[in-house]
């Protein structure tokens, strides 16, 4: 496995590790999990200490660092230490009551984790990917959008945004209805399929149906190998990880929304006619919202 040897800005080391975890080997995942879970302690660990703690060779640790884009372990440790220092500082020098301080710390922690998820998602969706998706949508006569369960929340939001730009959309959460709709798809039309884990067989069937119509399939899933992503012409990915089951969905939703916002902005800025349509649509909608 080879990762792009990118230069990693200070403070994004932990984000990079989390975003790449799904593509790592078993040994690399062990190193990654240990570093993320023990980031506060890394300043006291040499590469040999880390290797001994995990029962692996020191060269495995060095190779792990280099695959992430660092020159070696000292550079990775420095970046992690500085990220930890910044995360520990909430910018307030004034003492606060215990309850207020705890609430502020929780709010800052959630903001930080959301920011990390959004940054990790940005890193795994380079500008070229978003440009290709935006161009495919721009060429399509019709964009078909589907998501089931909670995925439909994101599908519905994007369908509304595209419609406001004057892009013809067919949105449905029912697979049978979407199958019927896809029978009218033309070459270069686009199917956008939302699925967090990409494991619903019915979405795979819709993807195959769309490709038989010579349309394009765009998937939006987690940053993991999955059956739906394997059938995509273009894949957008979301990275959001947290061991707390009540927090991870919040991170996923935030990172997903940020990704879709970036796509919307590209579509808006690429075409003056779309900008005009959006303004006209908002002007038509506003009287309906006035009391």
Overview of the structural elements:
The chain has two domains: 1-89, Arc Repressor Mutant, subunit A (Orthogonal Bundle); 124-289, Rossmann fold, CATH 3.40.50. The protein is an alpha/beta fold and 291 residues long. Mean pLDDT is 86; it is low at 1-11 and 90-96. The chain is built from twelve helices and five strands. A five-stranded parallel beta sheet has the order 2-1-3-4-5, with helices on both faces. α9 (175-182) packs parallel to α10. The protein has helices at 13-20, 26-37, 47-54, 58-67, 73-88, 98-124, 127-139, 151-164, 175-182, 201-212, 248-269, 272-289; strands spanning 143-147, 169-171, 190-194, 216-222, 234-238.
Primary descriptors:
Arc Repressor Mutant, subunit A; Rossmann fold; 5-stranded parallel β-sheet; 58% helix; elongated
What portion of the residues fall into strands of 2 or more residues?
5-15%
CATH superfamily of the largest domain: Glucose-6-phosphate isomerase like protein, domain 1
Stretches where pLDDT falls below 50 for ≥5 residues?
1-11, 90-96
CATH-defined topology of the largest domain: Rossmann fold
The CATH architecture assignment of the largest domain turns out to be: 3-Layer(aba) Sandwich
Assigned CATH class of the largest domain? Alpha Beta
Radius of gyration (CA) equals 22 Å
- Tell me, briefly, the overall form: elongated
